[in-house]
Amino acid sequence: MTDTWTLFDRLADSYDQVIPFFAEFAAQMLDVIDPSHGMRLLDVGSGRGAIAAAAAARGYTVTAVDAAPRMVSHLAAAHPGIDVRLMDIHHLDLPGNCYDLATGGFVIHLVTTPAQVLTELRRVLRPTATIALTTPGPCEDHGRWNAFNEIWTEFAPRAAARPFPDHLDVSTCLHEAGFVDVRTIDIAVHLPVSDPQTCWDFHMSHGFAARVEALNPTDAAEFRRRSLAELTRMHQSGGIVLDRGATIHLATNPAS
Ligand SMILES: C[S@@+](CC[C@H](N)C(=O)[O-])C[C@H]1O[C@@H](n2cnc3c(N)ncnc32)[C@H](O)[C@@H]1O
Asked: What residue numbers bound the domain in which 14 lies?
């Protein structure tokens, strides 16, 4: 397993369970794509099924693949109607020319070789099929999260490693892989959070946990203490609201 799959395998029990954050983005993404009922959809890096489960509920025939065994077992157990497979998405063990739509929520920026993943997705997609990938994106939070972000900015340089790249130019990657009609749409979530501890637990239930774990134990404890103090201040002055944005990268597999 790569470090990424190991991380998500370890997080799988709590991933998207503290606050339905990724599920909210998935619902918005499916609203934007709005495909026809019955389409064959491949969801890559499916996690607990934020996109896959919502798509199945909307009537798509869904195949979901992820390389973290515990993500796969949770998804398969919760949604027996979805074809769930344990697979590295750099090497899709799936037939070519088969799917009408490929989705990937918050995964393309985490993989080792995005170009190889996109080449594989082109192979399994039918001509004129759509691809839709989300990555973290811009969000207007009216300065609400400035103080929390500043705490992280202070600690980040002391982290032993950067677990994930800071940025991936997904549009260029899609063009270079041969997709056409490449475009982006920004979406955002605005989720009230009941209390500071729940908000901290949310942060430690997804990829952000890897950043905190890259700090030495003393710094990690101090970052947690300062973060909870800031979250408590937010809670007492109007409430904690999770404002986050994502960019949907849409493209089409060419006709031939
Ligand atoms: C941030 S999570 C996103 C999960 C889900 N798409 C969502 O929106 O909630 C990233 C997922 O991609 C999976 N992943 C990362 N690299 C992968 C790879 N090379 N092959 C398959 N899955 C991978 C991880 O195991 C994890 O479940």
From this structure: 3-139+162-188+243-252
Helix residue ranges per DSSP H, the chain: 3-11, 21-33, 50-57, 69-78, 114-124, 146-155, 170-177, 196-203, 208-213, 217-236
Pocket flag, ligand 1, residue 49 (CB < 6 Å): no
Question: Is 42 within the bounds of a domain?
Answer: yes
CA of 112 relative to ligand 1 center, distance in Å: 12
CATH of the domain at 169: 3.40.50.150
Protein residue whose Cα sits closest to atom 10 of ligand 1: 107
Q: Is 133 in the pocket of ligand 1 (CB under 6 A)?
A: no
Tens digit of each residue's pLDDT (9 = 90 or more) over 107-132: 999 999 999 999 999 999 999 999 99
pTM equals 0.95
Give a yes or no: residue 207 inside a domain. no
